[in-house]
Amino acid sequence: MLHAALEKQCKRSTIPVDFTKAFWTPPLTPMRAYETEKDQVEDVLGLGSLVSLTDHDNIDAPTQLRSVAETSQIPLALEWSVPFRGTTFHIGVHNLPSASAQSIVAELNACTRNPVERRISELLAMLDQIPDVLVVFNHPLWNQSCTGKARDAEILNEFLRQTSKFLHAFEFNATRSTKENKRVIQLAERWNRPLVSGGDRHGCEPSGALNLTRSETFSEFVDEIRRGQRSHMLLMPQYAEPAVIRTIRTLLDVIREYPEYPDGSRRWDNRIYHPDAVGGADRPISALWKAPPAYVDRTFACIRILENEAVQRVLRRMFRGGVSSYAPSQVSSEAVS
User: Fold this and answer.
1) What is the mean pLDDT of residues 20-41?
2) Cis status of the peptide bond prior to 328, with omega within 30 of 0
3) Which sign does the torsion angle of CA 86, 87, 89, 90 carry?
4) Per-residue model confidence as pLDDT tens digits over 175-184
5) Which of 7, 238, 247, 337 makes a 20 to 30 Å CA pair with 203?
6) Range of the domain at 300
């Protein structure tokens, strides 16, 4: 029913609707995202924190945070989108040098727009030559293709054959399933790479996986991974919750209103972007309509019932069989030289 209503609304739109060009941003501002991660480490665990935040293909968030004294040392980092043989892989690039970060990002984005396999390897080799930079293969078993498992495996193996010597670690992604992460562990062992913790923030939940280290600076942590080839991860209690519960919580975070936020980020339709009708510039969909369609508001009202604590308890009982066997626990990873 929702699908039919959406199609009907799209036909009425004066702007051609293209879901492949639409995108959305998480509800947390860069500072709130930083504080969420910092507070989990410092308040819950009683440890010092090193936080690296990434967006897709830009360093806007850490650049913004560096203008504040409290976060002036945060690493310049991004998640680089790498088109490769009909799919797209994502590479976490952490701790770029301040003096050349913008020019490096420009080179990476140029390759994303016009991907050439030889150029991908050249750029990764360039990053590998910078001693303090950490290059991580993010969620390596997830990609954006629909080519089938056999073809996906073939593409992944070829990508790793060309680039693995420039990849310093594989990501154990706390938002992916336990089954997938077990396969990532096996993949990392096969390619002799350590694991590091990570996760895609779509809602307000802090990461379900953290790296434990004695390093006092991010550069020291990079050295521990790159040259020490050692990684020790702590899986937090939220990773043990059923995936269905965590997905529902994220959805509720996404559609919730945040009146305390600045103008332009309070409502869900402030945070979803689509090209406009004139020059194709990305604009929040709140600027493209007078108000959300009534059926969307009604649908969201139904979804918000899931926020009720009694409903949450029922869902936990229904899906308790989905609890991860990994959490809460620790995972060590070490590559053999």
Assistant:
1) 91
2) yes
3) positive
4) 998 999 999 9
5) 7
6) 2-21+245-321
